[in-house]
Amino acid sequence: MTGPTQPAPLLFTPLKLASLTLPNRVVVSPMCMYSASQGLANDFHLVHLGQFALSGTGLILAEATAASPEGRISPEDLGLWEDAQIAPLARITDFVHAYNGLIGVQLAHAGRKASTFAPGRGKGAVPAERGGWPVIGPDGQAFHELYPVPTAMTLEDIARVTADFGAAARRADLANFDVIELHAAHGYLLHQFLSPLSNSRTDEYGGSFENRARFLLEVVRKVRESWPVHKPLLVRLSATDWVPGGWDEAQTLALAKLLQFEGVDALDLSSGGLSREQQIPVGPAYQVPFAAQIKRELPDLKVMTVGLIETPQRAEGVLQSGEADLIALGRPLLGDPHWVWAAAQALGVAPSVAEAYARGTRISF
């Protein structure tokens, strides 16, 4: 147990993002559940996300939620493209807040990776007779031969999707979310514009780094118009495509400087997802160096890392080394929604537990 001469572990030290204070540094990484109908949240989402509030997770990030109807990865994705989708999500945020939790939403557009089957339900493009739809992207390159062939976005399409993100941010505020994360990683639309591998445009949205970053920066500005300034705005980036000639760490750093200037409060650093040619050296904490680079160069910008950080000791080590400010967990929390309890025990602190669950922690202090 921590005492007067033993400081609390950083994993359980509060962190301020804008005007929001997270009680600890454990974040539920956005994970697609493919369980919605017409973009509407339901009882599954309430139970799935609510459990993390009951176990004292510092911040919950809801799954990729489409800003435009054609931006869904699958027909079963969540959405915030229309007002009818606000109330079902507000039911979830109300529950989380009732148990002193904090919750954000990841706003996304899948671009050329849209209209595909959810895992376990098929492969590749969903045909029209099963609910599929035409998809759009920076150009006409498909992600895979089994995926839909996108229509290259016109300037009008770009303006419309940008406006859709702004409108989705307004709805997220009405649904009482505490945080927005923009999904510009894993080969989805905003990432597709960033990478020269998926963006062969010759207009002001293609070619140079400045042009390829333009769409994301315009989306950030539009979201900031609708999203209260006191609420944190995060951006998830793939720091590298893991493919020669693609998006890489140097461009990520240059973009991070621009995003900080635009009022982004934190970056969520992941990698890959854009190309089937990627060669990823997967291993424990393999993406931490991407966060560490940003922290070295931009110490005032908060950074979150993710990826095979499965033990409390490894998470605490990353924080103690100054390589990141927040630890996002996906599969570990799916496997054990009460991971935070075990982490508290391992690091010698008392967990924050909903009263009804307290006798189930088996932790004595």
Automatic annotation (TrEMBL):
Gene3D superfamilies: Aldolase class I (3.20.20.70). Residues 11-345 form the NADH:flavin oxidoreductase/NADH oxidase N-terminal domain. Its cofactor is FMN. The keyword Flavoprotein applies. InterPro entries: Aldolase_TIM, OxRdtase_FMN_N, YqjM-like. It comes from the Bacteria. Keywords: Flavoprotein, FMN, NADP, Oxidoreductase. PANTHER family: NADPH DEHYDROGENASE C23G7.10C-RELATED. This is NADH:flavin oxidoreductase/NADH oxidase. The lineage of its organism: Bacteria, Thermotogati, Deinococcota, Deinococci, Deinococcales.
